[in-house]
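User: Predict the structure for this protein chain, please.
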Amino acid sequence: TVKNGCFYISSPHFKRQIHPRRISSIAVIANVTINASAIKLAVDYQVPILFYDSIGRIKARVLSPYFTNLASLRRKQLLVWGSPLSTQLATQHLIVKLKEQKKLLNKMLCKQPKLKRFLDPVLLRIPMVLTNLESECNKPLNEAKSIIMGIEGAFAKAYWSAIASCLDESYRFKTRSRRPAKDLFNATLNYMYGMTYTKIEGAVFAAGMDPFIGYLHTENYRKTALVFDLIEPFRPLVDGLLVELCMGGSLTNKHCDIHNEGCLLNREGKKVVVPAYNLFLESKIEFQSKRRKVRDHIYSYCANFAKSINQFPDDVPYYL
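Assistant: Here is the predicted structure, written as structure tokens:
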């Protein structure tokens, strides 16, 4: 509820007042009661209220109807789709992702040199994968997209196989699994990616872009294609967080439950993962030669992407 112009949080264990300027978002991951005054306060301060499902995907968002909406920028998003720039932008996300994957694997190797036999074969493949991606940059997007995704998918198999081989037996997984996850590692990773989707989506809105107009991923009904595009460079950062949790023994099989032949992170697991993820967002790391908080990197990357779109001229040749 609201008390003295602040959010007033009450539970059987504690009571607390927090000023809305100290909050970037409110995440609802369990059954709670939020009264109308608290919702209005959140809207007044542009604090989004986010409702998540059991695997960390956002299901609903409550925010002001006057949130940033730049019609000219969104029109250019559509204009770019038919231009050579669309392929360059789509490929760039995967190139940044690949470089971050390389950093993660090298970091793992520095900490544990004994992992060399698992990681070296994957690291040696990266220059060729980069060359193959760059060779597709100047092709029409409708021709290059399937090739680009095929290149990325083939490397992803080797990448995940190497990471799985480096983990203790209790965290090891056979393959990357999504819906449903087949093991603790994938269940946790899916949940972390779900939280990251929401951060990316917030940054997309803040930059004034339409989250449904993407370039790399398919524009299916109700699918925020641009969010799926822009999350790619940040996946390795989340991967690294989970690898640290596993290597530190923070997660155990008691942190997940089996449902319908799948695995879901349970309440106890979320008590470990959510605080670790929030600390991760506030931690300072180097990303694209700049050192700042992970949260700030997300907003900066999306803002720079919007600038690339906005600088697009109106009189360029289009692929038909």
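Strands lie at 2-3, 6-10, 15-18, 26-28, 49-52, 58-62, 256-259, 262-265, 284-287, 290-293.
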